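Support case: user asked for a sample of complex input and structure output to validate their parser. Sending the pair below.
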Amino acid sequence: MNLIFLGPPGVGKGTQAKLLCNKYGILHLSTGDILRLEISKKTTIGNFAKEFIDKGELVPDDTLLKMMKDRLCLDDAQNGYLLDGFPRTIEQAKGLNLILKKIGHKIDSVISLYANEDELVNRLIKRGLTSGRSDESIEIIKNRQKIYLDQTSPLLSYYHNVGLLIKINGVGEIKYINDEIIKIVNQYA
Ligand code: ADP
């Protein structure tokens, strides 16, 4: 089963992604985690990505597409995965389509988690106190939210129009939200 998680910063994609991937034994591919690892290893891609991430901006599409194309071709990505944080722009979604076609994969479902803005800002400020992430100060959080609205939220209609989008409320007990997602994706397991 191949899934995409969509949703604004702080909505709980990472938390729900981990629970789901453990349950179904599929690979969790978080582009944020992958990029932060590249930054910590000071690789070419990491050094390049850092300046964008620190400002709360998106890393350019061609960098992400190249990185994810290589990643999706590896052996451990042939038995199911959950994409968390990718695609984040229409351009990336179109590029992903081409990659999937080439390697013979298909997306079963796009799960969109949603929550109101106040809840999201509060969660992110709280997380910023302990996460040590360079992009979790209030101004940068606001910038990430604006970029989500401008560049990522158009993906909701994009995936709705191809019949893949499922919306799930991201406010409530972690376990309850997880059960709601399981009800949807069980049919693809
Ligand atoms: P969150 O979902 O909490 O905003 P992530 O950990 O997914 O954070 O991503 C952190 C940062 O990594 C983003 O603000 C962006 O700079 C970069 N990034 C991650 N995924 C992508 C992507 N698909 N395209 C461009 N930049 C990305």
